[in-house]
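Field log, afternoon session.

UNIT: design team B
ACTIVITY: writing a sequence onto a fixed backbone
BACKBONE:
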């Protein structure tokens, strides 16, 4: 018999391990509310769990989705057993372990919006969009700081001339600009190491240009 069915509270009280958005490490989470969607046919059964989970360390709430079906499994020749595959996603996305820097609320709205989209692309495992997003973020920063020049290369050099960037910082941004160009024009995905280094550089840039100056105003009144 084929059909769709729903059931609530089936996994309430269950405990899962997940990276906590606030703790920024893997923590135990308890399911506070849940709903199960089930599809049955003569040859196929699919189950999706929708869960609101709470970190048992800091009480931060997240959303967890777990999907499985009767056709998605793999065979382990060592144990000679079949194991079902579960597709798990958590929102806000944090699969790559990249979190927003402390004080990100100090960023101007346009810069913050671009930064948050880059974080989403990185954590979503989208290396082409992440590389392109880094370039867009640099463009937005240059525009916010009124950098002169018709090209991004010239704008970065102008920020260096104004003292906003150091010589070393400008050289690194040029490398990130090149990485973004490859993502945009050649659809070339950046490596995990490139993206991780790029985000470290971006974080440092945002801290030095926006976050630290704003925090210094209140710390040294």
């Amino acid at each position: 018999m084929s059909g769709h069915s729903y059931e609530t509270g089936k996994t309430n009280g269950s405990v899962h391990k997940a990276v906590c958005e606030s703790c920024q490490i893997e923590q135990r989470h308890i399911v506070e509310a849940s709903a199960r969607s089930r599809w049955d046919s003569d040859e196929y059964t699919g189950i999706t769990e929708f869960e609101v989970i709470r970190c048992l360390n800091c009480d931060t709430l997240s959303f967890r989705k777990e999907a499985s079906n009767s056709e998605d499994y793999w065979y382990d020749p060592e144990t000679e057993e079949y194991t079902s595959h579960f597709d798990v996603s958590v929102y806000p996305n944090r699969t790559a372990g990249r979190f927003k820097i402390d004080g990100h609320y100090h960023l101007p709205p346009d810069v913050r919006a671009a930064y948050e989209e880059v974080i989403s692309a990185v954590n979503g495992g989208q290396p082409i969009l992440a590389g392109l997003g880094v370039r867009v973020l640099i463009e937005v920063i240059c525009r916010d700081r009124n950098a002169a020049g018709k090209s991004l290369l010239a704008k970065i050099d102008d920020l260096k001339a104004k003292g906003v960037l150091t010589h070393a910082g400008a050289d690194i941004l040029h490398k990130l600009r090149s990485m973004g160009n490859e993502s945009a024009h050649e659809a070339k995905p950046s490596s995990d190491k490139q993206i991780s280094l790029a985000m470290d550089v971006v974080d440092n840039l945002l801290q030095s240009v926006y976050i630290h100056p704003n925090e210094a105003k209140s710390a040294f009144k």
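LOG NOTE: Helices lie at 109-123, 127-144, 152-162, 167-186, 192-219.
NEXT ACTIVITY: expression trials, pending approval
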